[in-house]
Amino acid sequence: MRSHILFDICALVVLFVGTGFAQDAQDQKVIPQLDREKLPGRQVKVSAICIGFGGHHDAKLKLAIEHLHTAGLNGVDIACLPEEFAGTEAEPVPGPTTDAVAKLAKQYNMYVICPIREQAGEKQYNTAVLLDREGKIAGYYRKIFVFWGEGLHVSTEGVKIFDTDFGRISILTCFDLNFPELWHECDTKDVDIVFWPSAYGGGSPLNAFAILHHYYIVPVGAGNIMDITGKPIENVTQPMPKQFIATLDLDRTFVHYDFHREKVEQMLEERKDEIAAERKLSEEDLAPWWLFKAIKPGVRVREVLKTYKIEPLRDYQHRSRERINQARKEGKRI
Questions:
Q1: Cα–Cα distance, 63 to 176 (Å, whole number)
Q2: Is the predicted pLDDT of residue 54 greater than 60, yes or no?
Q3: Which of 202, 224, 249 finishes a domain?
Q4: Ordered DSSP codes for 177-207
Q5: CATH number, domain at 177?
């Protein structure tokens, strides 16, 4: 009881401070959303709102709404709230929390991931609800690996993907971090970003999954947004405490050195004003991979790669796994 009282007092203090920051944001000039057609690559602006797990429902919901105002005013395309951010009282979907958050999604024309404790008939789940730019429910993800003692049902629906107007995303939650098969499945489903609402920061496993599977990870525990290189994104802004905003280019593409060297040399010579090699084999990183990015507005790396018959690393890995496993099954040589 004592800890609950202390948490409620802290939540109210944070709410008061957060409201001040949000009011400042309301007074500032609105930053327009990205015009992707006029930018190189395929860019999206994301927000990790790291206001913590649980607490007093009304206070935390108000704090979340202030953060969503700030995200919207900063031109965010998709914002993510933490795991069960507004407490552990179960409610249906749609319900009071998703309805309140949906208004902000529609107001600012942005997607929002809204994790709640869901009451679904007689069962309860740790559920992340995806709201689209119109504030409509676009889907949901129920936590697969529920943590010991949560007292919740476990999902039987598996890893899900959601196709948005900027790319393909997936959602995994907190304790799911410890089970690599989930992160591998996101890779096999060609996900661009994995959002990870959590009660804690995650740390080095996130670095590993990002570089191994070549997708971005947006953790919503500590705000340590992961680049596809496995390193934390450096160009992150904080318009208010506990909110982290970054612009990600989903078009950046890894390519393996295997079978591609002459074609890559030709591409870089002929398209030097459109495509740049962001990284290649070096003494610091011995992985035999290039990383390409577009440097000219309107150019997409993956479209250019197709014209030179250069296979992205992820496609190469998927194709190799499938064909080598088939040879194994048939007892054939490679």
A1: 26
A2: yes
A3: 249
A4: GG-HHHHHHHHHTT-SEEEEE-SS---HHHH
A5: 3.60.110.10
